[in-house]
Write a structure and sequence with these properties.
Strand 1 (2-12) and strand 2 (15-26) form a beta hairpin. The protein is elongated, with a radius of gyration of 27 Å. The strands form six sheets. It has a five-stranded parallel beta sheet with strand order 11-14-17-10-18. Strands 1-2-4-3 form a four-stranded mixed beta sheet. The chain has helices at residues 40-43, 45-54, 82-92, 98-101, 122-131, 144-147, 161-168, 198-210, 224-230, 240-253, 277-281, 292-295, 311-315, 318-323, 364-371, 376-379, 404-422, 435-441, 446-457, 463-479, 487-497; strands at residues 2-12, 15-26, 31-35, 64-70, 104-106, 109-110, 116-117, 136-140, 154-158, 214-217, 268-269, 282-283, 289-290, 300-304, 325-330, 333-338, 342-347, 384-387. The protein has two domains: 2-168, Ribosomal Protein S5, domain 2 (2-Layer Sandwich); 191-497, Rossmann fold, CATH 3.40.50.300. It is 36% helix and 18% strand. By secondary structure, it is α/β, with parallel strands linked by helices. Helix 19 runs parallel beside helix 21 (487-497). It comes from Antrihabitans stalactiti. InterPro entries: AAA+_ATPase, CHLI-like, Mg_chelat-rel, Mg_chelat-rel_C, Mg_chelatse_chII-like_cat_dom, P-loop_NTPase, Ribosomal_Su5_D2-typ_SF, Ribsml_uS5_D2-typ_fold_subgr. Belongs to the Mg-chelatase subunits D/I family. ComM subfamily.
């Protein structure tokens, strides 16, 4: 009897767990038995791995082979274990030295001819290996740039199983990352391309400066979508930690580029209004995959024509908006994905959506039902609500408004002021500060927040709405360079919540 070992990583959400793969070659009829809660794709790897080994000029044992993946209670999903399975068998057959193998994490799917294919979740897997103190990792060559984003661990890329076997024997060298990726430039359009809409432009700036959620309503063709598409261009570049967070999510989703995978700009995700709850929040069979709200982490989630979305899909946004995280329970476990995004909603005032409101032919109940898709608790989480008006003049003015670069400078200055103020509490933007902090610890004078108290007394505002109004007031103060919000800032923030949108 011979025993071999290799190691890989199981990715659940954006977290990774090291998996030990043991191969036992014993007496019995030839066959491969796989244990350790494998899914269908992993069960099929028995035939893939055996064909890959034989087609790589290596000998597969002519006896019974048992492959065990530990921890045995952890569900194993996907084909990421193929390379480790093959090398554990070769190790058990004493075909490869153990000095490198026992200190290397192996990731990759094998083709029948031994080629190594890229898999999802390489970045979080490498991060998990580094966290556990492993010195090196071998990945498919197509995912080398992605794995190279992690510092403090040796990363090697291979094109086929044969190369990895020869590398373990010391006969060849595997490729290494040529340099850390710097992130591709992303263009979201310039704010100067939007004609008129001064009030909506200012609301967009306020939303960007404080990471507040935004709702835009108005007739079709007045620039709601254009404004939303330009919001990411006003946001600061992601920090190194934020870039790795966002890139890890997109790695699990399988949407990264091979050559330059690092995401450094705030993502903009705009799902179609027919999207399902699963596509929006995340899910799928087996282990849940990230949905649109997680792919919009640290960026913008734009829901155009939101009254056309299903009620269940809209209501599923409640918890992520409050907690900045989504937890999805499926057959193979619970996946946690970050979901700290800015929500931008856009809608026409009614189903017929005429250019002039007086031309509307919808019955009052139809208008109410159309914009009533958002429940009270959900709309209460939207901080800035603007009703945009159709432009009568100014559409063909040659003088353009401020560009995104100018506005982004003011947004960056406001965010810097907010980050300094909340640094000791562990927050960076006004939009993520909890209610207890703005109500008690950093409390404003009563004469400043008196309009909020009056609105609460008259039942025009909820406790959550009061907290969010104070956050917007802080953002308005940051934009004008003040140390504290004034009563005018509070009244303006209150007006944003009371803006008529139905």
């Amino acid at each position: 009897m011979a025993l071999g070992r290799a190691h890989s990583v199981a990715v659940c959400g954006v977290d990774g767990t090291l998996v030990e793969i043991e191969a036992d070659i014993g007496r019995g009829l030839p066959g491969v038995h796989l244990v350790g809660l494998p899914d269908t794709a992993l069960q099929e790897s028995r035939d893939r791995v055996r064909a890959a080994v034989t087609n790589s000029d290596e000998k597969w044992p002519d006896s019974r082979v048992i492959l065990a993946l530990s921890p045995a209670t952890l569900p194993k999903v996907g084909s990421v274990y193929d390379l480790a399975l093959a090398l554990s068998v070769l190790d058990a057959a004493r075909e490869v030295p153990r000095d490198k193998l026992e200190k290397t994490v192996l990731l990759g799917e094998l083709a029948l001819d031994g080629r190594l294919r890229r898999v999802r979740g390489i970045l979080p897997a490498v991060l998990a290996a580094k966290k556990e103190g492993w010195p090196r990792v071998v990945v498919p060559a197509a995912g080398l740039a992605e794995a190279g984003l992690v510092d403090g661990i040796e990363v090697f890329g291979a094109t086929c199983l044969r190369d990895v076997v020869l590398w373990l024997r010391g006969e060849v060298m595997l490729s290494e990352p040529s340099g850390r990726a710097i992130g591709a430039d992303v263009s979201y359009g310039d704010l100067s391309e939007v004609s008129g809409q001064v009030e909506a432009r200012w609301a967009l700036e306020v939303a960007a400066a404080g990471a507040h959620h935004l709702m835009l309503t108005g007739p079709p063709g007045i620039g709601k979508t254009m404004l939303a598409q330009r919001l990411p261009g006003l946001l600061p570049k992601l920090s190194e930690q934020e870039s790795l967070e966002v890139t890890a999510i997109h790695s699990v989703a399988g949407s990264l580029a091979d050559d330059n995978p690092l995401i450094t700009a705030a993502p903009f995700i705009a799902p179609h209004h027919t999207t399902s709850v699963t596509a929006l929040v995340g899910g799928g069979a087996g282990m849940a995959r990230p949905g649109a709200i997680s792919r919009a982490h640290r960026g913008v989630l734009f829901l155009d024509e939101y009254p056309e979305l299903g009620t269940k899909a809209l209501e599923a946004l409640r918890t992520p908006l409050e907690e900045g995280e989504v937890r999805i329970a499926r057959r193979d476990g619970v996946a946690k994905y970050p979901a700290r995004f800015q929500l931008v909603l856009a809608a026409n005032p009614c189903p017929c959506a005429p250019a002039r409101e007086v031309d509307c032919v919808c019955a009052p109940i139809a208008r109410r039902r159309y914009l009533g898709k958002l429940s009270g608790p959900l709309v209460d989480r939207v901080d800035v609500r603007i009703k945009m008006q159709a432009m009568s003049t100014g559409a063909f003015d040659t003088q353009a408004g401020e560009g995104s670069a100018v506005v982004a400078e003011r947004v960056a200055a406001a965010r810097s002021a907010a980050a300094q103020r909340w640094a000791e509490y562990g927050f960076t933007t006004n939009g993520e500060v909890p209610g207890w902090l703005v109500r008690s610890t950093v409390r404003l004078p009563y004469k400043v927040i008196a309009p909020i108290d009056l609105a609460l007394r008259h039942g025009q505002l909820t406790a959550r709405g009061a907290d969010r109004t104070i956050r917007v007031a802080w953002t308005l103060a940051d934009l004008r360079g003040a140390h504290l919000p004034s009563r005018a800032d509070v009244e303006q923030a209150l007006a944003y919540r009371n803006e008529i949108h139905a």
